[in-house]
Write a structure and sequence with these properties.
alpha+beta; globular; GTP cyclohydrolase 1 feedback regulatory protein; single chain; GFRP_sf; 3 helices
Length: 127
């Protein structure tokens, strides 16, 4: 399951763009869905900046299927606090490795049942 990190301030910086929310780890499809929100560009290859209140971005991410799993606060300066949220999104379909394991278990169960029936029928032949 993919995890993303969100960092933002709840108190206004007091200038043209009072809020800055950094979101790290979004997939291209999720970035496309969030295009209607004012964007301040990229910090690095995996972090995009939104010029919105954190609650707006957190709510939008929840609509996309993400759920908050952890949060923390760090006092960066005396006049405001920055907050960080970790969110995760469930896969809509099982991961391929899980499907393979389930298939292997199913095949093993069928083979075991077949072997049990084979051994049971051989015991009937001996009697």
């Amino acid at each position: 399951m993919p995890y993303i990190l969100i960092r933002g301030n709840l108190a206004s910086y007091g200038h043209k763009n009072p809020w800055r929310v950094l979101v790290s780890g979004l997939k291209a499809g999720d970035i496309e869905q969030l295009k209607r929100f004012a964007c301040g560009g990229y910090c690095d290859d995996s972090t995009i900046v939104y010029l919105q209140h954190p609650c707006v971005i957190l709510s939008a991410l929840e609509v996309l299927g993400y759920k908050v799993v952890a949060s923390s606060s760090t006092a960066v300066k005396q006049d405001y606090n920055e907050y960080m949220w970790t969110m995760r999104k469930e896969f809509s379909e099982p991961e391929p490795s899980i499907v393979v394991e389930q298939d292997n278990i199913t095949n093993f169960s069928k083979e075991a049942m077949h072997m049990g029936n084979y051994q049971h029928s051989n015991k009937d032949d001996e009697v």
